[in-house]
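testing teh design pipeline on a random one, pls ignore if ur not involved
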């Protein structure tokens, strides 16, 4: 996990979850056998957490609904997410306007990708689509340059999935 996402915290979170799964399995097994749980803490888990629990934790971590929605997001939506992450960090604010995203896309991200400028209408459309999927919180009543957008899913999940996308290889430096 750390080598794929570059995030050791994510790997440690996965190990913690695999350990919790093992603890739950051991407790269920002890209850079925009518035994009291043995005290022993971490010593009782030595050589017990295995690939089965790790694979379950991976599926749990990367199989959530928002992760599936992020994987299936379109190209414009992913570019808007990159711009949202960059703009949130630049402004040090949890929410930004679509106009700021549009500016960031055309001044920064599009230049890195060697792509043509995105029309404002496309950015509004992509932000609204992300809002409809609840990946971002967006003002549904008013869709225009002043519409405020905020990330509605864990930032680490967005970064991890955007890093996996080969079409975004040129903007990986923005996701660091």
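output:
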């Amino acid at each position: 996990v750390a080598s794929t996402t570059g995030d050791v915290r994510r790997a440690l979170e996965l190990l913690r979850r695999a350990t919790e799964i093992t603890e739950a399995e051991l407790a269920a097994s002890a209850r079925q056998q009518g035994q009291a749980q043995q005290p022993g803490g971490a010593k009782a888990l030595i050589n017990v957490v295995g690939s089965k629990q790790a694979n379950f934790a991976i599926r749990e971590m990367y199989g959530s609904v928002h992760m599936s929605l992020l994987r299936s997001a379109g190209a414009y939506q992913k570019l808007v997410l990159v711009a949202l992450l960059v703009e949130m960090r630049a402004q040090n604010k949890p929410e930004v306007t679509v106009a700021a995203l549009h500016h960031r896309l055309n001044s920064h991200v599009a230049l890195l990708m060697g792509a043509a400028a995105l029309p404002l209408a496309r950015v509004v459309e992509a932000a609204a689509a992300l809002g409809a999927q609840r990946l971002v919180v967006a003002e549904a009543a008013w869709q225009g340059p002043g519409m405020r957008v905020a990330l509605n899913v864990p930032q680490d999940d967005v970064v991890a999935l955007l890093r996996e996308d080969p079409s975004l290889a040129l903007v990986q430096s923005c996701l660091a």
